[in-house]
Design a protein that fits this description.
Helices cover about 35% and strands about 25% of the residues. By secondary structure, it is an alpha+beta fold. Strand 13 (about 305-310) and strand 14 form a beta hairpin.
Length: about 625
């Protein structure tokens, strides 16, 4: 071959190789593009699932439409809730016109419980590009369910703990209740009107609610009232006769009566929207929980940690996923059912006039009972802010005696009125006792004597005495929500101090605080009270703080004189032994003459107590008789 021929042959060979390389490069780039397109479509599907919306640009489906996919997804997964959802894709493998991969799905169910699983996904090439090919036999949303199955996440709860009395017995064991409801899809206005008569609702009220629900197209049952077993049994026949009235039973904590221990023990029932919003994920709509009182305050302890089960409509008894609930724990309280019964029977005697009675164990400082009348509503026994009136003279007397400003035998004038810095103070009914000793002034609760003696005290003496006697400083550790002890500020002048000395002015206290005061005097030391130990709060130091023994002995004698010959002689001969205490009549409001609250604060044996009767005429005539009823009931039999 000539030189020219050799060069031509080599050139031809090089051109052939180049041409072949170009074909190879174009083929490889085409494959890469197909890989990218298939992976991109799978990634779009993952993002759409995570966003719960399948109508985004560029997302295509083989043999169906985005709207149909959206409807199927919503129908299948609506029962899982609206918690955070994460979907990621990996391991895409393409073969010719088909590619497959794996989606990793993580639902966040109610209570923040995660549920993770993997789902296969396939895409196919079509005339308009790659498209998601949903399975024809199973579901694209979970590998173990059918195409028409629906997923549901159900909250589960373990055994609820009990509120235990001081002897370890349940105060509110589980009992059956019947929530009576109207079904808007079946009930008629005539049925609603009949139900009003059965349950005691105002005429027309349930009819209006039913019509409003039906007009709005609501299918949700309308709650009417919840009955205990005995109350339900009396009405069952009448309820059975009404079409569209339903009453699915459930178990919940129940005290021995609807009003026993209320509102201290609290209620259990459906959670409110406000509780769901403030519960930091603990509650969801439809849950039942403690909603007030001790049941509400200790719901996390009593209720435990909820679990969750995910099931399909095809196999509702076989969970696809489950996280078991953590059972609740019991909460110990210091309450005594026997003392609570006696307290409640006593305050019921005030009828329509609101009242409260708190009892404290002298030996331990534990709260034995907290009773309110009316039993439902405001917890005036624990949370009330009231001027203590002459019941506060126990504190004033402790300050006077401990500083040697007076003794029980000291003559202290009790005139009809006494003027301090231009302000005139009077006795309860304008009476005068002349020139008695201090014991008589205390026994008959002479305001003018105490006002005169207040001039011997410093501005901070009453506040110091109140602190020493344990009247203040324990509201956050007693274990009850919204508990109030007392406010006894340092005085800012002569009239402020004179008013404070007789329990008026800026002094306020709860019935619980005054019961604690009586118990501390009876014991001779100050101990912070307790109802339940709150795991969320720092525990109080309940080491007794000794009081001045000599002064306490004198105080006890003075409190005995109140009953033997003073303002509370109605308590002489009370069953159970001698009673020692102090009456109080506290003015409040702006009327002329002012309205008054009535108090009796005292102790008998190992039980100290405080009685409040709102708008009572006087402690001796109104509150002391309630105290006698309490002690008589407590000591009966």
């Amino acid at each position: 071959m000539t030189r020219r021929g050799l060069i031509g042959a080599l050139t031809a060979a090089a051109l052939a190789v180049a041409a072949a390389g170009g074909v190879w490069w174009r083929h490889t780039e085409s494959e890469r593009e197909a890989d990218r397109a298939a992976s991109s479509q799978i990634a779009r599907f993952a993002r759409a699932w995570q966003q719960r919306s399948f109508t985004g640009a560029g997302l295509r489906f083989s043999g169906t439409t985005p709207a149909a996919v959206q409807a199927a997804f919503t129908a299948t997964t609506a029962g899982l809730g609206s918690g955070p959802l994460t979907v990621t894709a990996d391991s895409v493998r393409r073969k010719a016109e088909s590619a497959s991969g794996t989606l990793h799905v993580r639902w966040t169910l109610a209570g923040g419980v995660p549920w993770s699983y993997a789902v296969p996904v396939r895409v196919v090439a079509g005339t308009q590009g790659w498209a998601v090919a949903l399975p024809t036999a199973g579901s694209p949303w979970h590998p173990e369910i059918g195409p028409a199955d629906k997923l549901t996440a159900t909250r589960t709860w373990g055994r609820r703990g009990d509120l235990l009395d001081r002897d370890g017995r349940p105060l509110m064991p589980l009992g059956k209740v019947y929530p009576v409801q109207l079904d808007p899809s079946r009930a008629t206005p005539q049925v609603a009107a009949q139900l009003e008569g059965i349950v005691g609702e105002p005429a027309g009220s349930l009819v209006a609610k039913l019509k409003a629900a039906q007009k709005a197209g609501s299918k949700a049952p309308l709650p009417v009232i919840t009955y205990r077993q005995t109350d339900f049994d009396r009405r069952k026949a009448a309820l059975d006769a009404l079409t569209g009235v339903v009453y699915p039973s459930r178990a919940q904590p129940l005290a021995k009566s609807r009003t026993f221990g209320q509102p201290l023990l609290g209620s259990f029932g459906p959670v409110s929207a406000e509780l769901v919003a403030s519960g930091k994920g603990r509650y969801t709509a439809g849950d039942y929980a403690g909603t007030s009182g001790l049941q509400g305050r200790y719901d996390e302890t009593l209720g435990g940690t909820p679990g969750v089960r995910v099931t399909s409509s095809a196999h509702p008894d076989v969970p696809l996923f489950a996280k078991e609930a953590v059972p609740g724990r019991d909460v110990d309280t210091t309450l005594s059912p026997q003392v609570q019964d006696a307290a409640e029977s006593a305050v019921r005697s005030t009828g329509a006039v609101p009242s409260a009675l708190v009892a404290v164990d002298v030996k331990t400082g534990d709260v034995l009972a907290s009773a309110n009348s009316p039993a439902l509503g405001f917890d005036r026994a624990v949370s009330g802010h009231y001027p203590p009136g002459s019941a506060f003279k126990i504190v004033t007397t402790y300050s006077l005696l401990s500083q040697g400003k007076v003794s029980p035998q000291t003559p202290v004038s009790c005139p009809q009125s006494f003027v301090v810095d231009g302000r005139r103070y009077k006795n309860y009914e304008g009476e005068s006792l002349g020139q008695p000793d201090f014991t008589t002034d205390f026994a008959h609760s002479c305001n003018t004597a105490f006002v005169a003696l207040s001039t011997k005290l410093g501005d901070d003496d009453l506040a110091k005495a109140a602190t020493a006697l344990g009247l203040t400083g324990w509201a956050r550790t007693v274990g009850v929500g919204n508990a109030f002890d007392a406010a006894v500020p340092v005085n800012n002048g002569k009239t402020d101090k004179a008013s404070a000395a007789i329990g008026q002015g800026r002094n306020v206290a709860s019935p619980l605080a005054l019961a604690v005061l009586a118990g501390n005097v009876a014991r001779g030391s100050a101990i912070p009270p307790l109802v339940a130990t709150d795991p969320r709060a720092a525990a109080a130091d309940r080491t007794p703080t000794p009081l001045d023994g000599a002064v306490v002995a004198q105080l006890r004698e003075l409190m005995g004189e109140v009953v033997s010959r003073g303002t509370a002689t109605v308590l002489r001969g009370t069953p159970g032994g001698p009673v020692r205490g102090k009456t109080g009549t506290a003015e409040f409001g702006s009327k002329n003459p002012p309205q008054t609250h009535a108090w009796f604060v005292g102790y008998q044996g190992d039980v100290a107590f405080a009685v409040l009767v709102e708008e009572g005429k006087s402690g001796g005539s109104v509150a002391a008789p309630v105290a006698r009823r309490f002690l008589s009931a407590l000591n009966a039999g």
